[in-house]
Design goal:
The structure holds two protein chains of two kinds. By secondary structure, chain A is α+β, with helices and mostly antiparallel strands. Chain B is of the alpha+beta class. Chain B folds into two domains: 76 residues, Roll (Ubiquitin-like (UB roll)); 69 residues, DNA polymerase, domain 1 (Orthogonal Bundle). In chain B, strands 2-1-5-3-4 form a five-stranded mixed beta sheet, with helices on one face. In chain B, helix 2 runs antiparallel to helix 5. In chain B, 55% of the residues are buried. Classes of the chains: A alpha+beta, B alpha+beta. At the A-B interface, helix 1, helix 17 and strand 29 of A face helix 2, helix 3, helix 4 and helix 5 of B.
Chain lengths: 785, 166
Amino acid sequence: MDAPAPRSKAEISGGAHTKREHDSAHKHVTGSADYIDDMPEPAGTLHGYLGLSDRAHAKITSLDLDAVRSADGVIAVLTAEDVPGANDISPSGRNDEPVLATGKVLFHGQPLFAVIAESRDQARRAAKRAIISYEDLPHAIDVRAAMDAGYRMVTEPMKLARGDVDAGLAAAPLRLKGDMRIGGQDHFYLEGHIAMAIPGEDDEVTVWSSTQHPSEVQHMVANALGTVSNAVTVQVRRMGGGFGGKETQSNQFAAIAAIAAKKLNRAVKLRPDRDDDMIITGKRHDFVVDYDVGYDETGRIHALDACFAARCGFSSDLSGPVTDRALFHADNCYFYENVRLVSKPMMTNTVSNTAFRGFGGPQGMLGGERVIEEIAYALGRDPLEIRKVNFYGGPGRDVTPYHQTVEDNIIERIVDDLETSSEYQTRRAEIIAFNQTSPVVRRGIALTPVKFGISFTATWFNQAGALVHVYQDGSIHLNHGGTEMGQGLNTKVAQVLAEEFQVDLDTIRITATTTGKVPNTSATAASSGTDLNGMAAANAAQQIKTRLIAFAAEKFHIPEDQVVFEPNHVRVGNELMPFGDFIKLAYLERVQLSAAGFYKTPDIHWDRASGKGRPFYYYAYGAAVSEVSIDTLTGEYQVDRVDVLHDAGRSLNPALDIGQIEGGFVQGMGWLTTEELWWDDKGRLRTHAPSTYKIPLASDRPKIFNVKLAEWAENRELTIRRSKAVGEPPFMLPISVLEALGMAVASIADYQVSPRLDAPATPERVLMAVERLKALAADDETSRI
Amino acid sequence: MTKSHIELTINGKKVEALVEPRTLLIHFLREQQNLTGAHIGCDTGHCGACTVDMDDMSVKSCMTFAVQAHGTEITTIEGVAHADGTLSALQEGFRMMHGLQCGFCTPGMILRAHRLLQENPTPTEDEIRHGISGNLCRCTGYVNIVKSIQYAAAKINGTPFQEAAE
């Protein structure tokens, strides 16, 4: 026998499960990463700006645009009449969302016309010159007003039911009812919406769009142009943040830019300013939750009846699946013996609410956690005890309200580990002692769990494609259907590919997402980006490797199992060839070195009508302990310490995953504390800029912030390298912040009264809760005298 | 509109230009100088994505007129790296400590951190958090941004940097 061939370098650089930096990190720190507004503009590029309605609900009696047309630099003014195809960008297929409104306006800020001018400044100035007359119609801005006015729902409501809820409620030893208001949230992606359309030959157009869903933009642009998808190419290299706000909301800007580009045969760029972006585009749905719960002295829930009504805005958009997901998460980690959950997706005269990290799940989960909190205060117990009593368990206590069995439950271990590592019990006792003697500052602590279902509930979205080329020199080109918005998807998918081929990460070049390379993609949403696209890329690599192995086995007359991909080399029998040399050889022997990979999530199914199925492939888990201090004279507060333990399965990239957890936590904390959307009685959004809408600052961050991955966790399902999705689940961890604020408030009445803090718990709302409990405590005192 | 003649130094290079008096510095940098690293986030001076360094001060270039930059020295993200192209300590910190996700706020954040470390070469964690609170980041929760700045401060000062245990 020949001597064994020399061993190759032990490990590749940047394989799976390593802490690699974001693939664009170098470009970001040098200012060389191009966003759409940074790209060179084609010669003759024109700029668009939108004219908006200033009524919440009205008939348009006249739209006089003469002064707009005659303004300096204006090339064209487009209205609904200029839409050559369908004046519709409704992602739900309900034809309820026009590109440009016609006849009637349904919310304050609805786009009515687009000005196209030589410069953006000219377009913007001209847009202000329109003279619009309206005949006002009655409007309803929020959920309660819409219900009172008999408004319709934008989509069919959903019901999830199991057991006999009426009998369960009647038989339960204890019962309570209440309601909760849960605020919405603006995405505040740092890069606002933008589209640049470049006309092509015939009916072709290329659109650079800041979107999480290029395939849908392609479809909408084609539809609005009255052409077919093969005429439209949509591209995006990266977004400056998305968070769900660029899942459907990019359609309008892309469609208008494309219509203008085709009409004028010049490139057209459309970028609203921040205020208009916040006025025109949808947000997280705010909810009103009504609950009726039957329970016993141990805190165990016997029956829950709850209604989740959402402000959906003027159109359906994604409100159906968003309100569905609220119901899917109202159980969080808890088994409800008898349960009935219903959604009410209410139409309102506001901007059409849309996807936002968690997609209704956070609102559903918060409603469920409010119920736990209510029971705890009613019984005078630590809410954590009530949580544990209600956790999903073994057979008999493992079925969700949608009849999926929870098979991968690890919440008890997560919570136990965190309770110990954060010294929750000791700190809680210390805080209670502190509150007894502290006159003004009160503190609170809370531990809340998260269980989040992974998969699109629209089962057909759970598919993905990738296109992988290996060039003759051994360099690899990676393209997949997902989009990069900062989450590090491209880095993780490239790590998967590096691992498959056993090459260093820098062998792989990641390229812009384009509908021309991978068709019929799903939105990069529902935390699914890596799960789906990572698998598709692995599949493409495996196809190429299969061909390479067959080729080498035949050429060198060896069994296929003697062709092995080793770090940056391929072992062929006893010979170890550099990867590039091996590829060159394969090329010369005419081996196809390109493959389109595909993946679809197995084992999932969902029947909405019956409310039964297995909508989720698996669950991701986590838990957080938050500690806060409030000033009971002003309602101001600070988050003193947060400890998180989160399950990312076998993390593909622990550094990026921890970044998702930290970022998701702070974003969720903003939703529950300082971020307040406020409409006036005319239906005008008055918080449409960072001056009035407060996202967390660096100074708001928890003072101590310990974030850990559950190192022992592994996905029991065959996901990409046993990892778990991590985009959305951490967003719900800061429910612990809201509950800790609640505990600090509850200290006023010796923890005997539920604080019922609605979200966002702004300092004003904390102060009002403090005052309510002070009044109750005083009454109590008086009655004792 | 009559244009004004301005002379200034951008990233160490003398620049002369004609600008309309109403032109904002961010537009001048991005559209006339092709320096697209500074970004337009909110147009109103709140988000800090447009932050550049002007005569040893952090300025929000969306709220500064180009004519106000006449006679000044400006540093943008394109001028932060060392002359040989290697990354500055701050750039290295943001890259290695994962102080970025979508990257849109990064150039402004680095420029603000650059000035912060000139103002206070040995900031505490709390001073860093307050020192960058005029710059918004929606992705990271600021944890790794603070860490990146601590890394850079340590490297510049020649003191050891201990990444917090995970």
